[in-house]
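User: I'm putting together a small comparison set for a docking exercise, and I want a reference complex before I start. The sequence is below, and the ligand is arginine. Could you produce the 3D structure with the ligand included, as structure tokens?
Assistant: Of course. I'll restate your input first, then give the structure tokens for the complex.
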Amino acid sequence: MADMMWAGRFSKQVDETVNAFNSSIAFDGRMYRHDIQGSIAHATMLGDCGIIPKEDSIEIIGGLKKILADIDSGALELDPAAEDIHMFVEAELTKRLGDVGKRLHTARSRNDQVAVDLRLYLRDEIKEISELTAKLANTLISAAKEHTETVMPGYTHLQRAQPITFGHHLMAYVWMLLRDLDRLRDTARRMNYSPLGCGALAGTTYATNRKQTAELLGFTAPMANSLDGVSDRDYCIELNCALSLLMTHLSRLSEEIILWCSWEFKFVELDDAFATGSSIMPQKKNPDVTELIRGKTGRVNGDLVTLLTMMKGLPLAYNKDMQEDKEAIFDAVDNVKLCLKTFIPMLATMRVIKENMRNAAARGFINATDCADYLVKKGMPFRDAYKITGTLVALCIEKGLTLETLPLDEYKKMTDIFGKDVYEAINLDTCVNGRLSEGGPSPAAVREQIALAEEALKEYFA
Ligand code: ARG
């Protein structure tokens, strides 16, 4: 085994099992681009501040760029025996440049280095996840536009409650996604501060320029406290929180789609390309994608608990426990992207069975509130109207009728206020179209919120 870079203090080589146990390159190797990006900024600053000779800085930057190109092209493979990506890149640089390469780590520690890498890496991931989330919102808006007039039952307690439109239902999810986007943006803003130059924990004795490296890497400013700079993993936790909420929204919609695909509902039919069959039951068409999204939500929540638990007892500053941050947050990020990438085309190809939605809305006395409101609008106090309507519903159930098919004389037996126009008042379309209040299910109200949501989404499609 090759000597460790920190071998100076040790009289023995590290035990093989410890080496394997300690190594993180298997999972932090994916940050090679960001590690090199951070090192280039650091080397630039070292040269500009005269901490290392300018020629060395230039040579180091050239060497780092070549290493990046070689990893990108596959000409250079990451060494699985290396301790981590930071050590690997530095060792490779020294292998290529000799003594000059050894100057790169001046005025820096792996503790600030890993914190920079992870911030840079997650900043890119947030951008990609935000774009996918906006795309999903857009897919839902397109469907909502097609279904502003598609009447369906709205539920509370999963019992048919009041009539809504499918467009209205879909738009509810769009607003959740818009909040998710806002949270992602907020997380990105708060995490965009540079720990580079915090050193191991106590800064350095060199006259570094932390503002310069922060600027070169696109950070808002250097982190103000070196201990905080290397100890902070709030950004991982915050991001995972935002992702858990995003997954919660995907999971709730998934659950609804699973219900809607069942023969009991049959409101939608998934495209054959986005459903799977059973190995034994020939009739089956299973909504596996949505079930997996629902399942993976638990996994992303697990990642959040991993991070929170990992951090809660750590004294300042860096502790090796923190190496565990990456697998958790990478798992969360990877799975959210996978879910979004699969969900978007699945939704775009999903067939909506309008007749079944409408038929379901026509049964279950979904217009009972409207029947009561009819009496109220003719002067009756709401509580009395509510009671009369309840009695009528019970009568319908007994006779196997609906409010639409109950004869007028039965209405009139309850109160003379009822006239022929009650049938118009409880007509499904009247009930939906009349719900004009802001944010409501009427086609006009839904079109209004579609315009608002499209405005909010515009920046993601600029
Ligand atoms: N691989 C380490 C991590 O992911 C890098 C930082 C190591 N720092 C140290 N002092 N051992 O956290």
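The longest strand covers residues 159-165. The radius of gyration is 31 Å.
User: Thanks, that's exactly what I needed.
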